Amino acid sequence: MTLLDFIYYFVLPVLSVSIFLIFIRFIKGPKMVDRVIALDLIITTGIGFISAYSILFNQPALLDVALILGLIAFLGTVAFTYYIQQRNK
Q1: 68: domain range?
Q2: Quick one: pLDDT at residue 31?
Q3: Nearest 5°: CA angle at 57, between 55 and 45?
Q4: Longest Cα pair distance anywhere in the chain, in angstroms?
Q5: Per-residue DSSP letter, 63
Q6: Three-state DSSP state, 7
Q7: pLDDT tens digits for 42-84?
Q8: Shortest CA distance to 69 belongs to which of 58, 89, 54?
Q9: Range list of H helices, 1-89
Q10: Radius of gyration from C-alpha coordinates of the chain
């Protein structure tokens, strides 16, 4: 089994199922914190999915998209923590 077969048969389906399960948590999250963490995890898992897809189909331009998504997720998390701090004052 090569790396490409491993990505095709194992990594992409596992990431797809995990995105689906995290999305359920995003919808059912009882608190806003749970939903923000679920959204951050969806983006992180999406970065992994995009990276695996990029390796599988030999398209390195998609790695730039993954990098930008990572930056957006980081800024979203920082903004949320700032919001929580301001709300608790």
Answers
A1: 3-88
A2: 87
A3: 50
A4: 56
A5: H
A6: helix
A7: 999 999 999 999 988 899 999 999 999 999 999 998 998 898 8
A8: 54
A9: 3-6, 12-28, 32-56, 61-88
A10: 16
Confirm if 51 and 66 have CB atoms less than 8 A apart.
Answer: yes
Report pLDDT for 88.
78
Phi-psi region of 40 (alpha: psi -120 to 50; beta: other; left: phi over 0): alpha
pTM for the full model? 0.82
Q: Phi-psi category of 61—alpha, beta or left, where left has phi over 0 and alpha has psi -120 to 50?
A: alpha
**In the block, which residue shows the tokens 């995009």?**
50
Look at the chain and report how many structural domains it folds into. Answer: 1
Q: Which two tokens stand for residue 66?
A: 């993954």
Which amino acid appears at position 50 of this protein?
A: I
